[in-house]
């Protein structure tokens, strides 16, 4: 189904350019920046938006198409929207910076450099930026309104955190974050380091600042989010067996968790990452090919044998939408793998998708849960 997407065959070529009709402002002076020759769909409805179940039809806007609003990143992550300013921030992890998309001007610019390889970001109930610095400092921080940085967590039981990854704030002002090892297991997204924690955990920072390990039995937990009523916590297990999964937990009034249940299985080479929940309880999940390859080598041109990938990235990259029961209902095809997403815009119905090198947007008939 690759030929249904108007941009999928035009990948990774040329210098950074303004893309007609896409609302993209050129990123002047960004070294090594690349762009797609992205062409938004000319016809309605956008063939990139697939209805997997009739229940998804009400969330698709007939006359809305996928837009490219920013590019030039190396690995886009952690989008967070600030309604007061009408802008979105996202992480460009290998480039060690935060990027900013301004909805009023359409400009996509560098917001802040040297951010300790920031990964996940969120906004607390007071409108402050909360960030997972997933390498070097290995901590969760809050940027105050005056620009000062407050450290919220960098250790647990006297030992350094692994590599804080994704973060969410609950209505009681508690902050929940995942702590896998991605930021310290290589040099691409930070600096190689030694894990000090015996397990890869999900932590809760109470309103009193106390840190507690709430989940300790997931292998490299990743994205996380609460249901609209906050009675469920969903967590991605990146190294689940046999596939990546989303686990569901019942949340007690005091924040305690119980009733661990597998809600979604990535089913083979599918790759779950960050996600968001809408007001109806649907999970909008960053999706793509996991990179898994065949254990058996196959003849390829040049007299070589190669272990070929088990799937095509162009068939899997995008956003997969599941209802609250874990049933897939919709899919948004993108020319790049989506790592994380966020609902933005004045009505919180513009879906921003942080995807490899670029930031995409699509208006939908769904709204952010919070």
UniProtKB/TrEMBL annotation:
SMP-30/Gluconolactonase/LRE-like region domain location: 75-357
Domain of life the protein comes from: Bacteria
Entry keywords, A to Z: Hydrolase
PROSITE patterns per the UniProt record, alphabetical: TAT
PANTHER family linked: LACTONASE DRP35, LIPOPROTEIN-RELATED
Protein's name according to its UniProt entry: SMP-30/gluconolactonase/LRE family protein
